[in-house]
């Protein structure tokens, strides 16, 4: 994307992302949010299943360049910015999501107020993201490590990767593909369908990621990821059993209902976001 401003992501005069569903009347893409959300969801699910149904090349380095390839494959039919590092924000605005407070309140507590969860500033985003995505190779893709170290390393890497949120849209879906393949490289089957909308681990996972964004600690991510990992053995080979139909049924209604609400906003912060050193190993995982 050539324009360096955040506002360029949107179709002029709207709050709808520029997209590839163009015609003579819609030179920047369709402008109906519900239609775009429906197309985006269905196409991205198909592309995710296509990728995960194929063997991961054995020489995959799981670096930032590889994540860009994943994002481009999933979202290339949908968005012109697929596979590109996001632009924005400027000095007065920060990228954030708003969700219930899971730092000072227990997850699911109905008394929890809403709070801001910030993503990393655009300043030096790509070099910092390169560092985070370099952790798997640095630690030999967690091969031959004890299970607690593998789980902790996956969680710490996922937290750092998520905090960067390197794409304008589609970060979580790209992360599921990336970490499913990375877990398989380490010898584990990652049950990604358990993290789909309304699945049994979804709420715990979302809360754990928000907790990491605010605290920089990965204990909650470690706990939830641990529940979804099964060692790959002759008795338990990799099986991407959940069908595309099951994933669509599990995710589509909630995705459409929350499309606008869940889109990251770019607003003045209520408080200064923490400046976490997210790329540095903190003693959790395979470096112990």
The helix content is 40-55%
Main sheet properties: 3 strands, antiparallel
CATH class: Mainly Alpha
Give the termini separation: 41 Å
Structural class category: mainly alpha
Find the count of extended strands (DSSP E, 2+ residues). 5
> Whole-number average pLDDT?
83
What is the N-to-C order of secondary-structure elements (H for helix, E for strand)?
A: HHEEHHHHEHHEHHE
**The CATH topology is what?**
Fic-like fold
Q: What is the CATH architecture term?
A: Orthogonal Bundle
Strand order of the largest sheet: 2-1-5
CATH homologous superfamily assignment:
Fido-like domain
Number of domains: 1
**Percent of sequence in beta strands:** 5-15%
Q: What is the gyration radius calculated from CA atoms?
A: 19 Å
Shape: globular
Tell me the number of helical segments per DSSP (H or I, 4 or more residues long). 10
Low-confidence residue ranges = 265-288
